[in-house]
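# nightly structure sweep
# worker-07 picked up a monomer target from the shared queue
# config: single-sequence mode, recycle default, output format = structure tokens
# input follows
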Amino acid sequence: MSELEIRNLHVAAGDKQILKGLDLAVEKGEVHALMGPNGSGKSTLANAIMGNPALDVTEGQVLFRGQDITELEPDERARLGLFMAFQYPVAIPGVTMTKYLRMVQNAHRAERGEAEISLRDFRKLVEQAMQLTNIPREFASRYLNEGFSGGEKKRLEMLQLALQPPQVAVLDETDSGLDIDALNTVAHAVNAVKAQHDMGVLIITHYQRILHLIQPTRVSIMYDGRIVKEGGADLVEQLERKGYGWIRDEVAAAAA
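# output follows
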């Protein structure tokens, strides 16, 4: 049984059909890279997995650890063990990172029937997570993403990932707009958390550079709302050499 399984998923945003019968699975402990040209539906898939209410699932299922979660709210999916790193993390003025992270921690503990974590124990967890992910300690006292650079926001998401390790992490173009230092920090955090907790990772990108740092075990190519090609890490090298033109040609030839 796959940790995350997408079956024949059709998703619309308003009157526009974006996903058109998509099938995809993420196994325990694997890094599954999803690539494709702009407009192919990658971010729509990520948001559909997490239950974004702006999207309409018209057909198909999202299964998590064997449970149909297609109708669940985003917070319910998160408490079950799904995590998403956003392409554009939002700021929440007036809420410190410490307060936010403790709230998330206690929500997960409540789901498991556990008491709230003490402030002392929570601080220890945060310090351990910061060491694991190379996040500066002063981040914890700042307001959530307020005044942060793009790279700092992505590092903060990696702290959340380390503090509450999920069964499956969905990384939606988390490499977008990062300089090399921030990219290395993000990649180190993902690799470190994965090594400790054997989580599955769905990494969505149209760049190859992050996949040199987070090595995929499987690669799927998305085009026009469907998965059109699957393979191993060598598929990334083909795309690096040839671009997406040959994928479009293959799709057109198959439809002729």
